[in-house]
Structures are given as C-alpha cells and as structure tokens.
Here is the input.
Amino acid sequence: MRTRRDAGDTLIEILCTIMIIGLTVGALLSSLGTVGRAGNAQRNSVRADSILRSYAEATKAGVKSCVQAVPPATYTVAYTPPAGYSPTVLPTGNMCPAPDAPRLLKLNVSGPLGLQASMQIKVGAP
Amino acid sequence: MSNPTAHVHRHKDSGAALVLAVGFMLMVGTISGGLAALATTSMNHRNTLTALRDREYAADGAIENAITQERLNTTCLATTRSITDSSLNSVTIRVDSLTTCDLVIDSNGNGYLQRNVTFSACVTGSPACPAGSAIIRAQVNFEPANGTVTDTYVQYWNVNK
Here is the structure.
C-alpha cells in the first residue's frame, strides 16, 4: 500500500530534479554560446593576423622594387584583402625609403565587429 | 497492509532521480569546464603567436637597420660588431654582425674586395647571439667592400624561431 510520505517525497524529488536539470541545461547552453562567440573572435583574430602578415610581406616586396630618385619614388603594394577586412599603413603615401635610413611603417587591419590588429615593420632600401 | 518486499524496493528507488540529476549536473559541469579551458588555451596560444610575430618583425626591422648602417661603412675590416636597435613592436633587438673580406675576381680578371657580413638578431639582454638562439640569421654581401657600396646581395635570410 502506498503511504502519504512516499508520494510527497517523490514529488519533491521530481521538482528538485527538474530544477537541477533546468539550471544545468541553461548553464550548458550559456557556456556553449560563450565558447561559440570566443571561437568566432579567435577565428577573426587569426584571419586578421594572417592578413597583417601578408600585407607586411607585400609591402616589403613592393619596397624591393624601389628606385632611388629625387624626390623619392613611390612603391605599390600588390595585395587584395578578403571581404570585410581593410589594411592601412601609416605614414601614407608609400614613399620609398632613403638609402641611409630604413622607413618605419605601422600596419593596421580592421575587420568585422570592430576587430583591430596592428604591427610595426621597418623597410630598407633595396 | 503493506507488502514488505514492495516497500523495500520503493525505498531503494527513492532518491535515484536526484542522484541521476546530480550526476548529470556533474557531467555537464565537466563539459562546460572543458570548453572554458579550451577557449582559454586558444586565447593564450593566440597571444603567444602574436608575441612571436611581433618579435620576428622586430628582428627583421633590426637587420634592415643593420644592413643600412653596414652599407654606409667605407672600410672592410674582418670584425665582430653588436648593434642594439630601437624598440619595434615593444621588442628591443640586438644584432651581432660578423664581417669577412674576400677577394673576388670578376670576368675581366680584375680583383676587388667583397664584404660578407653575417647578421644574427636576438632579443636584447642575452650576453651573445649565437646561431642557435638567433631569431633571424642573414648573410649579406656588399660590393665593392671599400668606398660607396653599389650592390648588395642577400645570400640567405633564415627565420629560426
């Protein structure tokens, strides 16, 4: 025969179980969402880094084609970034470096969701 | 009257759902912890790779600077020099250079001195920059060795780490 105490215990137990499972599933979904967002940020960061390196190498290759002239000649950077990413260089103008002084350049890449990555390079006359 | 056997059976079952729920919670907690650790590790690796990239390009720039200085050198002396380059990407690099002078005979039978310089770039602070610990090691030949250098030849440019 089923007693009143047995029935009450089972109901509380089920309610507790549902609550615990609900909280746990909520936490799991939340952590999965966080990991997904972190993964996206990581992927964008890696891509920005790759673009920065490619842009730096394209800039160095462009400088190698410089010819010494007065006023200083300019060089061309042959690089097309993926959609959504925009590399820039400071100072602008792509002036060839003087033979006695390497030129300091600051490269910057801006990407989706306000992503920014930057790096300095020095380029010397060929 | 209650059946003693049924009562014992019910007693063994009671609390099983709660135990299962706690077990499930522990399992999900472990999975969540693992995912968080994975994300943290990825971010740490990302930062390490960014630091390595900054260091590599700082060394690259320091060697470019050293080549420019060496190009202005008007004498060929077999010597070892050390240059500390200004900070680039918040990394300060020292460049050690080893110069040798070789007599080269051109196709017309004329001889001239060629200055062969091996550059090794290391992070500042190391007492020396041996080949094994250099970030970049490069050999550049300058012709002619004395007076104004007209030609520069990069023989190799090795990025080690």
Remarks:
- The mean pLDDT of chain A is 84.
- The beta strands of chain A are 86-90, 103-110, 116-123.
